[in-house]
Request: fold
Amino acid sequence: MSRHLGGWRALGCALALCTASPAAWAQEDTSTPLPERLYFNSGTLLGSARVVALGGAYVGIAEGAAGFPSNLTALAQRAPALDRDWDVGVTLSWLDLPFTGTRRRDVDNDGQPDESVESRQLLGALTLQYKRFGIGFSWRNTRSAYCLTDACAGQGGRLRVSLTQSVLAGSVAFGQDDFILALGLFSAQASFSQLGDESWRYGDTGVAVDMLYRPHGRPYRIGVSVRPEVVADWRRDEGQLPVIAGRRLYAAVVAPAVLSIGASWRLGDGAHHYNRLAPAARRQLLVDGDALTVPDEESPNAPAGRWLITAQVDLISGVDNAVPVRAFASTAESARVGATSTIQPRLGAEWDALVGLLRLRAGTWLEPSPFEGRNPRPHVTGGFELFILRYWEDWSLTASFDMASRYSNVGVSIGFWR
Reply:
């Protein structure tokens, strides 16, 4: 089960590496790491209940702290009812509790049960808005453990792997919040440890660029997100060898570049209010003396169409000389991964079944496999959001699911009704 603002979500997580046989290790030069690079597989759909229910098609929505990991421009997109110059947002997901098994799942879509004996994922984000500006930080961490021996006895018989992707970003809205641009420092890091305090670390950074077009009076938005390829080299500590439990580590960890293009549309009565100005934005424009072309009678609570349709395509680049993160499992077999570019389409829909009380959501996405010869895996997603009560804020109960062959993710969360 996982947690998002007080909720829990069930999700399995797997990681993989490739390595040579014990006889070969004894003859290898252990003073230098292996030339291959470990592959960051970010194919798992991770995020808030709304993001999961819509199949991850959120680049063209970019709302709130939950939307920040998908599109950095969420930092500067003000909520329709925001009536102050500043706003703070936070989101947190905690995935896969200790009692959740991993060996019956195939999270990385390689056609085989996952080999990790421990698994945990965290996704978090913190955002701060002030007028037309926004700053924020998000991170995604995956921690797993693999058996180094067939017996897997004791803590010393396991290798722990931690993979982290994070971004520190700033964003600004232009004009009447019609166009939003965001820049971020994107980081990929990894660490390996067996027992004790010593760990082997990798890390490097790149620049992320995101955009959102949300024209006033129009029922649609268009978003673009660009994540760079990051090759995180081994950061050698003084006197440290690239060997753990008698096995050589790899020269680097690589996160493929990802280009995401998405759009969302509102349908139904009042759909043209989709990109309305927040009261705070309207007041700022009047104070600054800018021409205000949006009608004064536009209410922050006016209906904005009962249907929301969202679509997205992720273009994932190929990488050279990469292997999956499962090498240290005692049953691991060699494999190459991520050699070719892949396409990952997403589609979602949201319907206000009972206005102000109940929303229904459904979606689908096609998960390409980074492993050669494996077919893409279709997912079906969905969920609902139910208004609970009004106390200080409007509270809601949200549920979501993500189902596919050899994979399931079902969760419930508590959050704010918007």
